Every structure is written in structure tokens, then in C-alpha cells.
Amino acid sequence: MEQVLFLITIVSSFVFSGRCNNVYNYSRSDFPEGFVFGSAISAYQWEGAADEDGRTPSTWDTDFHSNSGDIACDGYHKYKEDVKLMYDMGLDALRFSISWPRLIPSGRGAVNPKGLQFYKNFIAELKRHGIEPHVTLNHDDLPQVLEDEYGGWLDRKIIDDFTAFADVCFREFGESVKFWTTINEPNLIALVCYENSSTEPYIALHNMLLAHASAARLYKTNYRVKQNGSIGITFYGSWVIPFTSSKEDKIATQRAKDFIYGWVLHPLFLGDYPDVMKRIVGKRLPTFSEEELRLVKDSSDFVGVIHYQTVYIAHADYTSDMGGVIILYGNCTEVELDVLPWGLEEVLEYIKQDYGNPPVYILENGRPSKHDSSLKDVGRVEYLGAYIAAVLNSVRNGSETRGYFQWSFMDLLEIIDSSYTYGLYHVNFSDPQRKRSPKTSAFWYSAFLNGTEQEPKNLSVSSSLGFASQ
Length: 470
Ligand SMILES: *[C@@H]1O[C@H](CO)[C@@H](O)[C@H](O)[C@H]1NC(C)=O
Ligand SMILES: *[C@@H]1O[C@H](CO)[C@@H](O)[C@H](O)[C@H]1NC(C)=O
Ligand SMILES: *[C@@H]1O[C@H](CO)[C@@H](O)[C@H](O)[C@H]1NC(C)=O
Ligand SMILES: *[C@@H]1O[C@H](CO)[C@@H](O)[C@H](O)[C@H]1NC(C)=O
Ligand SMILES: *[C@@H]1O[C@H](CO)[C@@H](O)[C@H](O)[C@H]1NC(C)=O
Ligand SMILES: *[C@@H]1O[C@H](CO)[C@@H](O)[C@H](O)[C@H]1NC(C)=O
Ligand SMILES: *[C@@H]1O[C@H](CO)[C@@H](O)[C@H](O)[C@H]1NC(C)=O
Ligand SMILES: *[C@@H]1O[C@H](CO)[C@@H](O)[C@H](O)[C@H]1NC(C)=O
What we know:
With about 475 residues, the chain is α/β, with parallel strands linked by helices. It has a single domain (about 5-15, about 35-450), classed as Glycosidases (TIM Barrel), CATH 3.20.20. The protein is about 40% helix and about 15% strand. It is built from 17 helices and 15 strands. The protein has helices at about 5-15, 45, 60-65, 65-70, 75-90, 100-105, 115-130, 145-150, 155-175, 185-195, 200-225, 245-270, 275-280, 290-295, 340-355, 380-395, 440-450, and strands at about 35-40, 95, 130-140, 180-185, 230-235, 240, 305, 310-315, 325-330, 360-365, 370, 400-405, 420, 425, 435-440. An eight-stranded parallel barrel has the order 1-2-3-4-5-7-10-12, surrounded by six helices. A hairpin with an 8-residue loop joins β14 and β15. The radius of gyration is 22 Å and the shape is globular. It binds 2-acetamido-2-deoxy-beta-D-glucopyranose (8 copies). Belongs to the glycosyl hydrolase 1 family. One of its GO terms (biological process) is carbohydrate metabolic process. Keywords: Hydrolase, Signal. This is Thioglucosidase.
């Protein structure tokens, strides 16, 4: 393949040309002091080394076992190189997760020394480069042994096992890690993994909330005084708007907010599931004991928001407990997202007004594009520029949002559709070396982070990129 595009060409064509320069009219210095800008990856999607050094399979290995999943970005072996790229980009922070079956291969009990050493090395490397680690304990990947033994999130045994896993993490990494997220997008996982049952999603989410609260209590009781960190949970929050102006659609949309956000946020901030859920789901919705309610309420120091898109809700009887169907907005598909930044503002406003304005970290936001299509991802730049502007608007209007993590730092093994990726860096999955190459968005984000839109710093890349002119 003719290799014609050199770094300098890309920089001059797509950053200096002005095509991207008008995307935003704000700068990083408009954000409050201490506001954190980062990017994100997750263990299964980045690490690879699936059966190396004592790791056992996770539920993701079982569902998506393939050569690509076994190697992914090979981050397990390339972490130093990747931290250097993160440093060169100017990230304040990195969100990543710990693979439970790498740290504790049997799900409970003995800690794997090699897994432990890997995370210690990785965290130390981040700290050495001044990058704050934001650690997610469970990013969609349970140990398969626990899934086989008792069905994972469906059994209350997971609460003790998760708490013991968290205990190892706090004890071993807590000197360096000040931001803990217990569980990634529990409301989405509960729905997607248990979609064929009318009871299981509610049981799974109930156990996730209890596991989260149990780990948070442990942290606050045994570690907080020494380690001075904070601990929270995430939720998957697409914004929802009525499909038509009919009264039914408006009511269905409010119901959807209770079923999507309230399912997680009501117990955490208001003390129980939303009334509308209790009424509709009835006996299939697990109940909290008095003690559990006290454990769950106020257990989250912050809310981690996972936001990608806005969808319509149309009233529909009998299709689901929610009594509404989701209709994609405009030209959106599952993997082609429109730029609708006001949706994120609405989510942040809703959290502010309905849940007492807790601290918020946006832990995922980004735009997918066809993998291998182009390094000139101007559509991603447009999306990120608009959504970061939306965050600034929200902060200026009183939202306690304290950080923004773009998804994802590099192309990862994506689950919904692996032919669409979100990376600032392209990863060549056909290359045994898994070569990383910066996209236009990498230069853009770097320049934004450095407050020098006009003068992005040089990123660490080898001489040429593997893309022919396009
Ligand atoms: C950017 O421009 C928009 C539209 O003119 C305006 O609403 C917004 O306040 C501006 N943002 C800043 C940070 O100046
Ligand atoms: C749900 O049922 C459908 C149809 O039987 C099946 O194709 C799908 O794999 C099931 N999903 C899960 C998560 O079990
Ligand atoms: C604890 O953390 C807070 C917020 O990060 C910080 O402001 C404070 O100085 C820290 N206190 C100690 C004793 O380290
Ligand atoms: C959908 O895409 C077409 C063609 O790019 C554009 O003209 C139209 O405005 C888009 N619709 C919405 C709702 O964004
Ligand atoms: C800004 O905050 C005020 C007070 O909470 C609220 O009434 C208003 O709707 C918010 N504006 C936007 C655009 O969200
Ligand atoms: C960051 O911006 C400054 C100008 O404000 C520039 O001199 C410097 O080279 C940039 N830093 C890096 C590491 O690129
Ligand atoms: C960036 O790299 C280019 C090409 O290698 C070089 O000419 C330029 O001096 C470098 N700029 C900085 C600020 O290091
Ligand atoms: C990816 O790597 C393979 C094998 O090294 C190479 O043939 C191909 O050209 C690369 N693709 C891109 C887009 O760089």
C-alpha cells in the first residue's frame, strides 16, 4: 500500500486549516478550576492476554470468544507505550477497569500475583505521567466461574463476592486510586443480558445496587480515612423525548425516565424504586429491607453518566413494563449517532433538579465511526466539540459536573458492532503489533486540552501512517 500521508500532512490539513478550528468558541480555561478531562478504556476491550498469566475467562470471553477478543488492543503488553500516548495527548485522567478474573481467577479467594502486579505497574505508570486513575471495578465482565456457579448477578451471593473483590482493590491500589466506580451501566447490563425474562432484569439490578452499596460501605468504613477517595456508580442515560406531542407520549416519556434513570438513581438518592415502577412491575420488583434501604441511600459520592444519544419514546401498551417503545432520532442508528448535544444538557439538568444536584462525572461520551474508514474523523471532532460545549453550558447553569471522559482513547473491541469504533487513536487489528495511529480527533482533543487550538503538540507517532490517501 502506498503510504503517503505523514503526520505533518494530517496536522496541517485538518487542524491548522481551520476546518476544525471553528467547531467551538470556548476553551478549556472556561471550565472551573479542577474540572477533569480524560478518556476511557475497559479491561476486556483493551487488555487482550485473555489466558495469560493466570487469568480465567470472563462472561465477555464466553460471549465473544474470538482471536480479536483474546488479543484486543494488546494493552496488557503495550501499556507503557499507551500511557506515553496519553501523556503526550495531555490527559488529566484515564478511566479504566480491573478484570476481576485476572485479579481473582476463581472469582473468590486467592489473588493472582501476576494480575496484581500488572495493575500495580499500570497504575504506577499513569501516576508517573501525572495521569489520575479513575477505576471501574466491574465493566460488564464477571468471572465466568461465578456465572456458572450461581448465575452471576441473579444471586445474592454476588454481593459478598463483589465486596471481597473490591476489598482487594481498595487495599492494593487505594494508595494511588482516589476515584472508584463500582459498576458500569447497571441498567443497560440488566436489560441486555436478561432481556427474555420479566423478572431477571429487576433481580440483577437489585443485586448490583446492593453490591455497589456494600462495596461503598466497606470503602467508607475501612479505607476512606486513610485514602481520602470517593466512590460512585454509573448509569446509562440516553435522553428521552416524546415521539409526538400527544399526552400519551409525554406520559410515556416521563415513565421512561423513571424506568431508565429512576431505576438506579431513585434508590441511591431518594431511597427506593420510583412509585410508578412499583405499581407497574408489582411483585416482580424486588423490595429492599429497611436496612438495605439505609445501605443503598446516599451510598454514591457521585453519579457516573454514560451518554451517547437521544431517543424518542412512543406510548405503547403491553410491549414492556415501561409502556413505551424507543424510536431512534433523526438519522441515528445503533452505531451512527447524530450530534444532539442538548440531550446531554437535559440529562445533567434532570440529575440536578430531580436528584439534588450530586457531583457528576461524565464517564463515557463519544461518537462511533466505521473502523478503518479514515483517520480524518471530522465527524467525531464535531460531536466532541459540541458535547463538551453542552457540558460547559450545564456547569455554568449550576450542574455539579466535575469531569468529562471521552470514549474511547483508542479503538477497542466494541460489543454492539465491532465494525464501528470510537477511538481517538486508530488501532490496526490486522496488524500483529496492533499499531496505533492518531486520528484528527486525537490532535483536536490534545490541542483543546493544552488550551492551544492553533498549536497542537506533536504526538508520539512513527513516521508514517498505514492509510493510503483517501
Ligand atoms: C458560543 O456560541 C454560542 C452560540 O452563539 C453561545 O450560545 C455560547 O454562549 C458561546 N459559548 C461561549 C463559551 O462563549
Ligand atoms: C432471547 O430470545 C431470543 C429468541 O429466542 C434469542 O435469540 C436470544 O438469544 C435470547 N436472548 C438472551 C439474552 O438470552
Ligand atoms: C482529600 O481529598 C479532597 C478532594 O480530593 C482534597 O481537597 C483534600 O485536600 C484531601 N485531604 C487530604 C487529607 O488528603
Ligand atoms: C438526516 O440527514 C439528511 C442528509 O444528510 C439531512 O438533510 C437531514 O437534515 C437529517 N435529518 C435530521 C433529523 O438530522
Ligand atoms: C438552568 O437552571 C435553572 C435553575 O435550576 C433552571 O430553571 C433552568 O431550566 C436551567 N436552564 C437550562 C437551559 O437547563
Ligand atoms: C501547550 O501550549 C503552549 C502555548 O500555550 C505551547 O507553548 C506548548 O508547546 C504546548 N505544549 C505542548 C507540550 O505542546
Ligand atoms: C513538531 O514536529 C514537526 C515535524 O517533525 C517539527 O518540524 C516541529 O518543529 C515540531 N514542533 C514542536 C513544537 O516540537
Ligand atoms: C494493518 O496491518 C496490516 C498488516 O500489517 C497491513 O497489511 C494493513 O495495511 C494495515 N492497515 C492499515 C489501515 O494500516
